[in-house]
Specification:
Structural class: alpha/beta
Strand content: 35-45%
CATH class of the largest domain: Mainly Beta
Distance between the termini: 56 Å
Shape: elongated
Number of helices: 5
Helix content: 10-25%
Number of domains: 2
Length: 223
């Protein structure tokens, strides 16, 4: 059974909704931890609702998982289950057993003739949200820690980038990343990766592109 079968992740208004497969509890729990270790920046600071299906879990099992997740900076706040045993256990531990339905993303695709498509996101992208598009992505708002933006084209953020952004996701080295404040957890263009250095002084709008095989930032304001 593949990891994608064991673990399904969706962004929602209150954080991340992670649905586990039908394998035994030790197997799915290990798969979840491995996914977190593969993408630590994506999960850092996330609020997690866990759908465990029909797993009948004891208090010791859920409390152990909650403690383990906290070590990765993740807060387990809800357990969804069709098992009355698990639901009762979650309530005893003070975990929610219901979550609000996800709101549709405030995003739309803009297409112009003879030009690549662009996805317009008219809001701040919050922790636990992952947005992917096969063209450019334009965000009117911030990209918060724990959020992830992936575009085959360029990424333009009219706000602050503090999450993970990956432009040129399929190898487009001409893609760029622009923001009013670049403080990403991780920034990637094609196969080039960088993390944000400690900020010194006032932030300024910047654009990052690949030059001479390296990621280079320069002023977004033309003199």
């Amino acid at each position: 059974m593949t990891d994608s079968t064991l673990i399904q992740i969706k962004g929602m208004r209150d954080g991340l909704l992670v649905s586990l497969g039908d394998a035994g509890w030790p197997v799915v729990q290990q798969a979840l931890i491995e996914r977190i270790e593969q993408q630590p920046a994506f999960f850092q600071g996330a609020r997690l609702a866990l759908d465990v299906g029909n797993q009948a879990l004891k208090s010791s099992e859920l409390s152990s998982l909650r403690d383990k997740l906290s070590e990765y900076g993740i807060m387990l706040w809800a357990i969804l289950s069709v098992s009355p045993v698990t639901e009762n256990t979650a309530q005893i531990l003070g975990l929610a057993t219901r979550v609000a339905k996800s709101r549709p993303a405030e995003a739309r695709t803009i297409k112009k003739s003879d030009e690549e498509s662009a996805l317009w996101v008219n809001k701040t992208v919050r922790s636990g949200t992952r947005i992917e598009h096969d063209g450019h992505i334009v965000v009117l708002g911030d990209v918060n820690p724990g959020a992830e933006i992936i575009a085959e084209g360029s990424i333009i953020v009219w706000g602050r980038i503090r999450g993970v952004v990956h432009a040129g996701a399929k190898g487009n080295q001409n893609a760029v990343v622009c923001a009013l404040d670049l403080s990403p957890t991780q920034l990637r263009i094609a196969e080039q990766i960088a993390v944000s250095p400690e900020r010194r002084g006032k932030s300024t709008p910047e654009v990052v592109r690949i030059k001479d095989g390296q990621l280079q930032a320069e002023s977004w304001i033309q003199g």
